Amino acid sequence: MATVKDLDALHGWLESAQRHEAHLLSLLHDAQAEVNMIKSRCAQLEAQKCPINRVPNELLISIFTFFVQDLDQDDAEAEHKLCHWRPVVLSHVSRQWRILALSTSCLWSRIVLSKASPVSAFDHFITHAGTSLIDIFANDIDDDQSTRHAPLVSSEYLPRSRTIAITTLGPLSMVNFLRSLYDPVIFSHLSTLKLSCDPPHRVWGTFFHGLPSRPDVRFPGLRHVQLVEVPIYSVPIGVFRNIHTLELSNPKQGPYPLTRFHPHLLNVLSAARRLEHLILSDFTPFIDHGTDPIGGGNPLPTIALPLLQEFIWYYPEVRALRHFFSHVSTPRLRNADFSAKSNRGMTQNVTPFAFRFPFVDDLTIECDTQETLYSATREMEFPGIRNLIIQTSIDKWDPTSSLPVFRWSAIFRDLRVPYLTRLTLFRLSITLDHIGGVFQYMPSLRSLTCDMCDGVANLLCALSAGDCACPIGKSIHEDHGLLELESLTFRDCDGLRIGCLQKWICARNGDGESRHTAVNRTQGRSVARRKIKPLSGKYKSRVQRPGPTPTTTSIEKGLEGLSLGRSSTAACYIPNYLRQPSKITFVSFDNCSGIVEANARELQRLGIDTVEWK
Q: Which domain of life is it from (predicted)?
């Protein structure tokens, strides 16, 4: 009996537990449904909100693009060693940045390869670049790696290239690329082409025999071409049709130097009619005396470069300068930089005519000997020059070497430079015999710089007419020279006499009694020296006779007919005795023996705005 009662009690507890379990399962089901509903709602709100701690993708892409493309010279040189690391860094910051970086094709358009770069680097960049334009930089590629980087010169990628810069360590790799320039492919986007190779083999020319010529329209957007130790005859002539900048460097080295016959250069220049900047480094064209008009030969037709504005030529022989300008006309040349060297094995002939450059503003002349300095520009005229730098490559600190003497009459054919405002002398010797009348030809000179020059004390003594000056007994200032001079700079100049400089600055700026003397002298100079005579009767009647008032139209026509070209100085000439000297406002000393800081402070008391001493 007791057993039946116990069994009934257990069944009651079981039913109660089962009811409790069912209730709990119902609560769990309701809780799970509520959790799912809350998660769905949160996802909806998350998609709608714009949190302040997240940058929009469009702005991130703009920041990425600026970061990748903003390369200075140091960054570019560092990246040329292995690869373009900037987009790689962006893709490893976070998951979101990686997705954006890999999906933005313009970030991967700069492809940098070297002999240390794995093949997978090219595949990775070219894959993520997609169909965007690419810039190819291949550095130090040797002949053994030419097959590894064969895709670079394939017809699949070359038409998409904006910039191609390839440096090889052997001729085979460069020849493979040069052959691709002859393929029937239109380089519609190519704007910059830079090719550099080690001294090539003597059989360069055999690689290009029998190659078909292509139309010149294959390079419509090419603007900049640089060839370093690459023969110009190996490049299709169409490459030079539309360029604005041309850089050629072919140094002589090895038993088989590059062929640098002058007709090859003439062919290139005849095709480059839009050329604006020409840079030749160690490029000495072959001088064929049969085509030299000065030697009595049959001259080649003159090639005109009507748009050329800048011409830089490093280390040409003086005769090469003459030969070049006898065949090439540069009517609009503005900037010229010639680092000439002396003729070897041949003397310089005297030219009966001169090459005139009326629009040249900046001129730099560097020579290796005194004879070169006196003959480099002797056959040239620069009537409109404004900035002139004359320097020599002679070591000043060598006790056995003497610096070339600054003789203005031996450097230029036409001594008059009425528009010259800045003159820089570098490694020259200034003597009393040749400094007296030089600055009379520079009435507009405002800035004078002497760098590592000898005899600067002679210049200061001539300015102030000191006891050590030339026997003429009067200063350059009193001889109506350097009236516009405002700035003086001396670097590594020995033997400066601060007394002569102070005396001259006192006369120019005025200080106490010197100021009163300078003002009286200036006022006396501002009056014409000759006596003004009255007009004769016929001219007087013409002046007193009233005439019609000129209209605006007639005045404009008269102004249009008036031409004040820089080559003509008569229309704008003002007599020196009517001009007042300018105030010296800037003086700088850099590593000049004989000048101490106390001397610089004394000059500041003379009314100079800026005095620098190092």
A: Eukaryota
Residue 236 tokens read as 């299709």
In this structure, what token pair is assigned to residue 310? 């800048």
Q: Would you say how long the chain is, in residues?
A: 614
The per-residue pLDDT for 426 is: 93
Give the integer Cα–Cα distance in Å for 612 and 587: 6
CA separation for the pair 48, 348 (Å, rounded): 84
Rounded to whole angstroms, the Cα distance separating 186 from 163 reads 14
Q: What is the pLDDT of residues 495-529, one digit of tens each?
A: 788 888 888 888 888 753 444 444 444 444 444 44
Whole-angstrom distance, CA of residue 88 vs CA of residue 62: 16
Residue 96 to residues 48, 57, 89, 219, Cα–Cα distance (Å) = 18, 9, 13, 40
Residue 286 near residue 327, CB atoms below 8 Å: no
Its domain, for residue 85, covers 56-132
- The residue whose two tokens read 């057993």 is 3
User: How far, CA to CA in Å, does 146 sit from each of 14, 206, 229?
Assistant: 86, 19, 19
Predicted confidence at residue 467, as pLDDT, reads 54
- Residues β-bridged to residue 454: 429
End-to-end CA distance of the chain: 123
The angle, 0 to 180 degrees and rounded to 10, between the axes of the packed helices 57-69 and 95-103 is: 70
Distance CA 493, CA 594 (A): 9
Domain assignment of residue 144, yes or no: no
Q: What is the pTM of this model?
A: 0.75
Closest by CA position to 456, among listed 265, 318, 589 = 589
Give the residue among 96, 22, 4 at the shortest CA–CA distance from 57: 96
Place of tokens 């078909």: 212
Structural domain tally of the chain? 2
Per the domain annotation, does 310 fall within a domain? no
Q: Per-residue pLDDT for 163 more than 50? A: yes
Judge residue 228's burial from the number of C-beta atoms within 10 Å of its C-beta, 0-12 exposed, 13-18 middle, 19 or more buried: middle
The type of residue at 11 is H
Domain membership of residue 326 (yes or no) is no
**Token code pair at residue 167:** 């440096």
Note the pLDDT tens digit of each residue in 457-492. Answer: 888 887 776 555 444 444 554 444 688 899 999 999
| One-character DSSP codes across 455-492 | -HHHHHHHHHT-TTS-TT-S-TTTTT--TT--EEEEES
Whether residue 94 is contained in a domain is answered as yes
Q: Which residues pair with 139 in a beta bridge?
A: 114
d(CA 98, CA 108): 13
